[in-house]
Amino acid sequence: MNDLPLRPTMRAEELRHAFDRTFAEPPGIDTALKENLLAIRLGRAAYALRLSEIGGVYSEKKVTRVPASSPALLGIASFRGTVMPVYDLHILLGFPTSSAVRRLVTMSVAPIALAFDTFEGHLRIPSDAIAPQGASEGMRHHVREFVRTAGDVRGIVDLASVIATIRTQVSQTAS
Amino acid sequence: MARDPHKYFRIEARELLTQFGAVVLELERDGNSGGQVQRLLRLAHTLKGAARVVKEPNIADRAHAIEDVLVPFREMSGDIPRECVDAVLNSLDEIDGRIRELAPAPDGTPVVQSAALPTEDIRTVRADIAEMDAVLDGVTEAHTILNGLRLAPRKLEQAQHLTALLLDQLAPRGARESYSPAFAGQKTAYATAQDLRKGLNGVRSHLGLAIDQMDRELNQLRDVAEQLRLVSADSLFVSLERTVRDTGRSLDKKVAFEGTGGDIRLDAHVLGLVQGALVQVLRNAVAHGIEPAGERQAAGKTVEGLVTLNVSRRGRQIVFTCRDDGRGVDLEAVQRVASRRGILDSRTKSYGAEELLRVLMRGGISTSDTVTEVSGRGIGLDVVREAIEQLGGEVVIRNQAGKGVTFELIVPLSVASLEVLVVEVSGNIVTIPIDAVRTAIRVMANDISWGSDGGSLLYDKVAIPFISLPRALFGTRSPAGRAWSALVVAASGSLAAIGVDRLLDTARVVVRPLPEFVPAHGMIAGASLDAEGNPQLVLDPDGVVAKASHGFTADLEPNSPARPILVVDDSLTTRMLEQSILESAGYDVDLATSGEEGLERARHKRYALILVDVEMPGMDGFTFIQQIRSDPALHDIPAILVTSRAEPEDVQRGLDVRAQGYIVKSEFDQAKLIAMIRPLTG
Fold first, then answer.
1. In terms of C-beta density within 10 A (0-12 exposed, 13-18 middle, 19 or more buried), how is residue A125 classed?
2. What's the structural domain count of chain A?
3. pLDDT surpassing 50 at residue B110
4. Alpha-carbon distance B539 to B527, whole Å?
5. What is the ipTM for the molecules in this complex?
6. Domain boundary among B371, B386, B408
7. Which of A97, A102, A114 has the most B C-beta neighbours within 10 Å, making it the best mutation to test the interface with B?
8. Which of A90, B124, B522, B558 could form a disulfide with B543 if both were Cys (CB 3.0 to 4.6 A apart)?
9. Which chain A residue has the Cα nearest residue B145?
10. Shared-domain flag, residues B282 and B354
11. Which of B382, B408, B434 is the C-terminal boundary of a domain?
């Protein structure tokens, strides 16, 4: 066994080889697919939104009332100069309305903003942590999947279903 | 003669060539799969007409040659022979070369072919609408950030106050203290604090001024950017007048053009698409409508024909009305040609005027005996229809045999700049186009006569309908006996008075339609953005007058049968506050001081809604709502909890007993309370 320290030239050579090797090896790939979610809360109920379906999160945005027959339509607001309707997520998800609505998210999948109480943070979880709704589970408002996070099971809001409901409401009002 | 007679032709021709190039390449790649040949025919037709007008027969002939090559393939789908595509491209190259020759040399004479590429004075630029929108977005965002900065002077003021306290503590108490050696360190601190005060004073004053200045600059920038995005309609008139005059000259007809309503400003994109359609309509009017001088004289008309264009706003639409005083459409000829081409059933003896005019708009019909320089191939009116339909609009034709044709090109108001009157309605800022407002009047309660079908008041010795805007827009009832600020609005030939809470200001705003996913509302024309970038509603005078004219059966009757609201709270302050807010919003209010009293009242009188405190001695708010929900006679009355506790458990308990909402007392807000109650009380 040789305990002598390497000579500087040998040490440099070893470092050079190690450096070159890193280019020959494939980059490390995290094979587990991840889902990015936004954790939100409506009263005590915990929900999540898919980050890919969200355009932005806003707070204390002024919402202008519009005459509307739908109680879920809170009004319109401007997001970077684009005017969008603001719908109350409480009512869309079957809860009573709340005076505590402070946050807005804009959807990336449709020009609609949703209002809710509390933004809890960003979740990055493995895809297989998302469970579909069981056949025996009663139909929940706009929720088809669930995810377990620290201490909570959250319904993931199905924005496509929310949009379809809004579209129907708008067309019924128009007709 | 103009110094550069081809200036506008070159611009138009270059734009047409660019479109030509794109469509020919598409044709070569995909064959005639999506109307490419039809599009090319229209482009050639437009270019040919324009070239004839500026007396450029070479270009017109080449465009005509393109039409000859492509006409056989108009109805066919699939690949076009290579040699045909080559022929079109060759013609385009020739046209391109000729257009280059038309560019004036610096001394004003057209350049010869070998000359360098044309150089034009660049005095105006065409900005992409998306780029203009990006500028507007940037200004709006900058304004939002600036508004956030407005808190800074207030914080600096607090720092100034603290500095004053510090100076007070560090100040020497007399000459003896100021000269003592023990005060040396404190003296330095005192001097530093004085510097700090000076610095803070300077920063605060500078910051305040800078914020105000930036605010003014950004407002100006926003106004300019918004105006840049819009173009006044009269910018069309010069080129359209030229079109009419030159078309008339090429057909040996004397025709005058009159344009009115040119001060209306419109989205440049809309105007661009409408311009093409208008050119076509005007050329048609001159070529087919206006008769030769002899024929006009024989018909008792002036020798000079007249083509007019009026631009007007009709509610949420802009209407371009083109009228000529010519012979009108020869409907028999339309039927004859359409039957011959199989568009109409030749066995039917006679079609109605409406049906025939609709067929005419579909294209492919030309009643001209000969293919003239500017019309006659039946390509034209379908261009008009398609351009307008592309904007979501429609074309209406009215034909008066022997007297002329009126074309109405009606396009939705996508973006327009309007002068508006700013008013307050139920705590909201709303605007109405000022050109529809005749006057503003003060209306006392006894000036309004209420009937079963709405209110009326006397204006200029005539009864006109009255409508309460708070009620019509937001369902807010007004207390009996209130006085109003009312606007007398004129639209669609009728007058109506609309009651608002306050008149605030006038402003120039840029109106956009309400966004998708907001139900259309007859009284709303769209929304504009205020200085802080927040939307404001813009009323549609036509919709408002129509609503007032149709009346409101339950508008503002003093003895309104609306159900009252019950407030249950043991706190006198809360009861009085809620009662005052609700009564100001037009609701009748009953009060109860406990859950038990509230239940008793609810069992004897039907309420529209109950506002109930959570923490009360005896029966609490949760139990109260539980009792209501379990009573078959009361279970459907909406109830809102008012609580000083915002713990999630409390909120959840509220949800569990099926309260329709909860309001946290520390966040109590008049507007939110009314906004929450409004949809629940219907």
1. middle
2. 1
3. no
4. 9
5. 0.79
6. B408
7. A97
8. B522
9. A80
10. yes
11. B408
